[in-house]
Specification:
Helix content: 25-40%
Distance between the termini: 85 Å
Largest sheet: 4 strands, mixed
Strand order of the largest sheet: 8-9-13-12
Strand content: 25-35%
Length: about 300
């Protein structure tokens, strides 16, 4: 069996960290990828990179490889007796098709090889594409059907890249949250030589609402109350995603206090809802009538309450 110097193939030292190995593989794989590289023997070099990375990224395989000792690249050597049982047949510890291209796909969002050969060569899955999709909080709460008008890059028969317009119908489920990812299988780049199409991966972005703030599946509302409503207690009308409800504010309520409405938040996958929190904000009148001013002055004289007593 001929020895392959995986460290030399990846352009790293034997003491290289896993992060250095990954960075080097990423750089070289981009350079020699057959779909974009004009280098001579790019496909063969790309396969060698995949095989080398498949071994060196795995701590156990790397340790076993290091135990082989030092040989010149291409030099004949005798592998350990249990080589085939542990790593399979062939020159390398792992095959290119089993892992090398898969890791390249994960790094760059490109489609994986299907392992089949069509009339034009190796069948490859199309490229996966990612995009952000903005939705309203109301759409997140109730769910909605959307039609996406996008342009997908595709390679023409003569090898040039062009952008093909597509309209994709999809449904956003109720209870969608900010940052949630949705995968639409087969809606990405077109596969080549009989390979499957890639996927379209959407990252949902919930737009700010004028009243409510979503945190996961819980909803928050800043609820203004007057000083007398907080001091005396009251019943106030509160908007929710499903209409208005009345909340009881206990006497002596404080600014920042949270009132919970169980199950009035965003729907959760399967069943149930998050909760709704009304956060009290005590607000004074911006201007006072003469009568209000007189009443506040009388209160100031009569009251012995000092909110800053703890600072003395």
């Amino acid at each position: 069996m001929k020895y392959k110097d995986y460290y030399k193939i990846l352009g790293v030292d034997k003491t290289a960290s896993q992060d250095d190995i990954k960075k080097s593989y990423k750089k070289l794989a981009r350079k020699f990828h057959p779909d974009v590289s004009k280098e001579k023997d790019a496909e063969e070099k790309f396969k060698e990179l995949g095989e080398a990375y498949e071994v060196l990224k795995d701590a156990e395989k790397r340790a076993s490889y290091d135990q082989l000792g030092s040989y010149q690249a291409g030099q004949e050597f005798r592998p350990p007796p249990d080589w085939e049982q542990r790593f399979g047949q062939g020159q390398g510890f792992g095959s290119f098709g089993a892992g090398g291209f898969g890791d390249f796909a994960d790094l760059f969002g490109m489609g994986r090889q299907s392992g089949k050969h069509g009339r034009g060569g190796i069948a490859r899955a199309g490229q996966d594409f990612t995009m952000a999709l903005q939705i309203t909080l109301d759409e997140a709460f109730h769910g909605v059907e959307r039609t996406l008008d996008i342009e997908v890059p595709e390679r023409t028969a003569d090898g040039h890249m062009t952008r093909i317009p597509k309209s994709i119908k999809m449904r956003i489920p109720k209870g969608a949250t900010d940052g949630q990812k949705m995968r639409l299988p087969g809606k990405g780049g077109k596969g080549t030589n009989g390979g499957p199409n890639g996927d379209l991966i959407l990252t949902l972005q919930v737009q700010p609402h004028p009243f409510f703030k979503a945190v996961g599946h819980d909803l928050y509302l800043d609820l203004p109350v007057t000083p007398w409503e907080a001091a005396l207690g009251s019943s106030v009308e509160v908007p929710t995603m499903e209409g208005k409800v009345r909340l009881k504010v206990s006497s002596g309520a404080k600014s920042g206090q949270k009132l919970r409405l169980t199950g009035k938040g965003l729907p959760m996958r399967g069943s149930g809802h998050g909760d709704f929190f009304a956060v009290l904000q005590i607000v004074t009148p911006p201007t006072l009538s003469e009568e209000e001013k007189t009443l506040f002055e009388a209160l100031a004289k009569a009251s012995t309450f000092n909110p800053r007593s703890h600072l003395v």
